[in-house]
Amino acid sequence: MANSLSHVSSEELLKKLTAFAVMVFGEFGFLGGEALLPGIGKSPLDYAERIFVDYVMGRIRAKELAYLCHAVRNDIIDDLRSPAQKRTELRSNLPQNRQNDDGPRPPAMDDLRASNPTVEDVLDEETYKARVRRCVEDEPDLKEIVEAVFDLNLTKPTDIASALDITSAAVQARRKKLRRRLITSGIVQVKK
Amino acid sequence: MTEKKSNDPMKQIDQLREALFGVPEEIDADEANEILQATNVDFDAVRNRVYERLRAEAQPFWMEQKELPVSLKRALEEFRPETGPIRSEKELEQRASSKISRVFEAAKARITPNLAVDQLVLSSEFRNEKEQKSAKDQETIDLLEKELLKSIEEEKGDHSD
């Protein structure tokens, strides 16, 4: 496992940062490489690119990939918490004019509910756990991992492997499956 | 066996996330490719975009003829499209030099056949004209003819080097 950035080519680093940004977007319910943060208009690629360029220019000094990935995630979360993003979630308080005819009326702003939860929702521990649990309900092997982490407070693969009586490699494989689910389905679409 | 919990809610979520999805280093190059493909990321387009951004970052260094940071230089080399624009002053000089050489070669190829001095015959019409020409005029014409032939010989020698 290449932890040191000195052994990672620029191309591989950019790919990994982009893949990671796509995963973080998945955590917040924005799926796909072309997804944009509402009110911000940035895609996962924008975040990966910024951190990559800052690293290459020496504006971020890091020796490990994890540091840069955290920087990508923090940038995304900062933008999700920004006033610009929050404004997009405001709903109109104006009373709606009822139409006299019986025909269908056009949708008003109040009818349009945000499809994604707020960043506070996602970053609330209990909410986060509830969403993840629901997300893996139909997958027993993933459910076991989730329970080991949430109920037994295990975080290390060796500990999880020991508790589930499986190998560490099997834990890694299940984590990979979880990551796949994260980018294809997201976790926050699952209602509380 | 259990991990100590952090009081920072953000850190707690981070710990949970890493326990569930693994640390970033677990994503190897193959999986990164799979993720990009699964989410329809056109990495070639990303590469090109980042390359242009890096070039913009490199411009001030090139303008001031300063050495590029090592990681920037490396990234530019990796991301550079084959038909990409010039990267540095040095490369600009190299390309310009080779372009000028090519122009000279082409020009030489067009000029050289016309410098077939061996077969050159100067017109004798004016030289042999008797009217309105003194003996001194004739000397001057002969001298100029010699100088011209000598100059053409020298030119021919330069081109054959």
Principal-axis shape of chain A: globular
Overall helicity of chain B:
55-70%
Mean pLDDT of chain B: 76
- Largest sheet of chain A at a glance? none
Helical segment count of chain B: 6
Category from helices, strands and their pairing of chain B: mainly alpha
Tell me what portion of residues of chain A adopts beta-strand conformation.
Answer: under 5%
Low-confidence sequence ranges of chain A = 90-100, 106-114
Number of helices in the DSSP assignment of chain A:
9
Count structural domains of chain A: 2
Largest interface, with counts of residues having CB < 8 Å to the other chain, equals: A-B, 64 and 49 residues
Order of helices and strands of chain A: HHHHHHHHH
Quick one: biggest sheet of chain B? Answer: none
- Approximately how much helix is present in the residues of chain A? 40-55%
H-E order of chain B: HHHHHH
Task: Write up what this structure looks like.
- The complex is a heterodimer of chains A (192) and B (161).
- Chain A is mostly helical and 192 residues long.
- Chain A is built from 9 helices and no strands.
- With 161 residues, chain B is mainly α.
- Helices cover 64% and strands 0% of the residues of chain B.
- Chain B has 6 helices and no strands.
- Chain B has helices at residues 9-21, 29-38, 43-63, 70-79, 89-111, 135-160.
- Chain B is rod-shaped, with a radius of gyration of 36 Å.
- The interface between A and B is large, with 64 and 49 residues.
Quick summary:
The complex is a heterodimer of chains A (192) and B (161). Chain A has 192 residues and is mainly α.
